[in-house]
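Q: Study each token:
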Amino acid sequence: MRLVVTLFILIITLGCSQENTTKTREISKQEMTHTRQLRHMVLFKFNEESTPQEIEKIITDFSALPSQIKSIKDYEWGLHKSTEDLNKGFTHAFLLTFDSQDGLDMYLPHTAHQNFVASIQPHVADVMVIDYWSN
């Protein structure tokens, strides 16, 4: 009888732990889906004629966009520092984060973004944009 009770308790315990493990896996998948974010990477190659002051103003103006466009969830920028010399003249990298495609779709035509794009045209020799979902 004691053996039967022990087996019964063991079966119930294993069943409960299996159920909890399954629920934990489901939550993790849901959390992963919700934490994926859309990245909008922008790389600039500036004209040789552009002064450091003009480039600094572009950085300042780009950095102001998150306060003007609510769909931008995160923003950062940095300068090229690699010794591999594979940057093809691109020196400035900007990374914007959005929670959804809708967020990016609101950003692109936004007046503040369009005014920024128009203002940098005389200084940008080339631009590269890559959008991707974080994994």
DSSP finds four helices and four strands in the chain. The mean pLDDT is 85. The longest helix spans residues 2-35.
